[in-house]
Amino acid sequence: MFSVEDTAVYADAIVDTAKCAAACAECTLYCLKQGGKHAEAHHIGMMQDCAEICSLAQCLMLRASPNARSVLQLCADVCQKCAQHCGMFNDATMNRCVEASFRAAQTCKRIASA
């Protein structure tokens, strides 16, 4: 059994991964509407991967799973790649995704390596 204290160490990452998943979902819809390079399969897939790994990481952190730190390391890697990929598009909507992904990557990396 775990307590709230067990999940307290993850508080920042829970918030940051939630914001990242939301930003990636929002940007996926935006990109599909934009079409062209925004809607290329690789780009859409990257944002979907990021949103899904963030959601999985949240679930594991919220129940203090012993697998949370391993998934956080993967989450950090995927979020970093997503931030770099979305950064190739220079517009305000994509910049929100870049910022959220970069922040989640940094937080997840910090906690995974603690």
Question: Would you give an account of this structure?
Answer:
The chain has 114 residues and is mainly alpha-helical. It has a single domain (4-112), classed as Substrate Binding Domain Of Dnak, Chain:A, Domain 2, CATH 1.20.1270.360. The chain has helices spanning 4-8, 11-34, 41-62, 68-86, 92-112. Helix 2 (11-34) runs antiparallel to helix 3, helix 2 packs antiparallel against helix 5 and helix 4 (68-86) runs antiparallel to helix 5 (92-112). The longest helix has 24 residues, at 11-34. The protein is elongated, with a radius of gyration of 14 Å. The chain starts with a helix and ends with a helix. The mean pLDDT is 93.
Core attributes:
single chain; mainly alpha; Substrate Binding Domain Of Dnak, Chain:A, Domain 2; 114 residues
SSE order and pairing:
Layout: H1 4-8, H2 11-34, H3 41-62, H4 68-86, H5 92-112
Helix pairs in contact: 2-3, 2-5, 3-4, 4-5
